[in-house]
Amino acid sequence: MPNDAAEADPQNPPTEADDQVQFGSDPRSRMSLRRLGILLGILLLVDVLAVLLVPPVDTAHPEADCAYPVCFIEGTLHFPRPHEVWIAGDAQASTDILTFQVSLTDSLVTMIGLTIILSVVAILASRGRAAVPGFFQNFVEWAYESLGAFGRSMGGARATRYVPLFASFFVLILTFNWSGLLPGVGILPGLRAPTSDLNVTAGLALVAFLIFHTEGMRRLGARGYISKFFPFYEFRKGFGAGIIALFVGAIELFLEFIKPVTLSMRLFGNIFGGEVALGVVTALFVALIPVALYGLEIMLTFVQALIFSTLTLMFILAAIESHHHEEGQIGEEAVDALEDVARHAPAAT
User: Fold this and answer.
1) Terminus-to-terminus CA distance in the chain, angstroms?
2) Owning domain of residue 111
3) pLDDT of 88-119, one tens digit each?
4) Whole-structure pTM value
5) For the chain, how many structural domains are there in total?
6) Collapsing DSSP states into helix, strand and coil, what is residue 125?
7) What are the angstrom distances between the C-alpha of 197 and each of 8, 66, 165, 341?
8) How many beta carbons lie within 10 A of that of residue 301, not counting itself?
9) Are the CB atoms for 201 and 215 separated by under 8 Å?
10) Which residues pair with 103 in a beta bridge?
11) Which residue has the higher pLDDT, 62 or 268?
12) Within the chain, how many helices (H) and strands (E) appear?
């Protein structure tokens, strides 16, 4: 009687057709790779044509030939000093990176335009919410809920009140950061990524500085908040505890003024440094490496927006927390340690 099924070979088990699918065997994947190759080829062609048809120009000497690579690099960079579009009273333009004159710079023009766009989007997102949300409403609700969950995971229940502020800082700074990756921004007159200007990042840091100190005074009262830095009440527990508490308070007061400096310099340095890296690489190479660097910059600018907004949230939560128990505990522990050392010291003969 003939066997209806062949004997199973343990070394060569039967396989289904789907078990032997190899990379690239799916026609859809081959089409996707083909499209990616076509897009990269088009990008390379556009870059080459741009260099040939619109070559870089030496702005200092327009009549001279633009030498590679110095002139190519300088033509793609926007240096830290902002460019004034308008100056009050026709005054002389400042040459400093951080300016204090009344003027309208290219970074401010871009910031105002982006702020108006974000305001319109926020108004549209908050009005006419449907019971069955569409794509736009779904995306906005998902983004806000994700930011809220992240903020509460960092600061606990106390952070719930400040989630709107945290989300606003994040979205605003992320938009400012990503605007610098758009073609022409930083090169065309009147356009520049706002966060690549130290004046803008310093302004954002000062706003955050005022917010967390205002919240601290509002929650703890003016006297209670100031006592965090000048804890004279600790002298009731002893002279040593009072001196140590005052020393700790002085350090905390000094650190409060360092916070806006670190917030502004970190954001400015990373965004402007990324623009410089993109400008140099774009000038030296044609397409492939700048495309990879663009992907890295998208991720880094996202992280910088998250760091700024998260630090602002943490500074607010630290400002509304009373330090009475903490500073008293520090003073008591220090006095106990000194007394313990004195008890165990060998007696003088």
Assistant:
1) 112
2) 106-344
3) 877 787 788 888 888 889 999 999 999 999 99
4) 0.76
5) 1
6) helix
7) 72, 27, 22, 54
8) 24
9) no
10) 87
11) 268
12) 9, 2
Give residue 288's pLDDT. Answer: 57
Contact 196, 272 (CB under 8 A): yes
CB 173 within 8 A of CB 264: no
Q: Does residue 86 fall inside a structural domain?
A: no
Cis peptide upstream of residue 69 (ω within 30 degrees of 0): yes
Of 162, 198, 197, 201, the closest CA to residue 315 belongs to 162
Q: Is residue 200 part of a domain?
A: yes
Residue 45 lies in a domain: no
Residues forming beta bridges with residue 87, ordered by sequence position: 103
Tell me if 330 is assigned to some domain: yes
If phi > 0 it is left, if psi is from -120 to 50 it is alpha, else beta; for residue 219 that is alpha
Are 163 and 151 in contact by the 8 Å Cβ rule? The answer is yes
Q: Which of 192, 201, 179 is nearest to 78 (CA)?
A: 192
Task: Please list, in sequence order, all residues whose beta carbon lies within 8 angstroms of the beta carbon of residue 198, skipping any fewer than 6 positions away.
Answer: 80, 97, 98, 264, 265, 268
Find tokens 């840091």 and name the residue: 205
Whether the CB-CB separation of 183 and 275 falls below 8 Å is answered with no
Measured between alpha carbons, how far is 232 from 251 in angstroms, rounded to an integer?
A: 15
Q: How far apart are CA 148 and CA 142, in angstroms?
A: 10
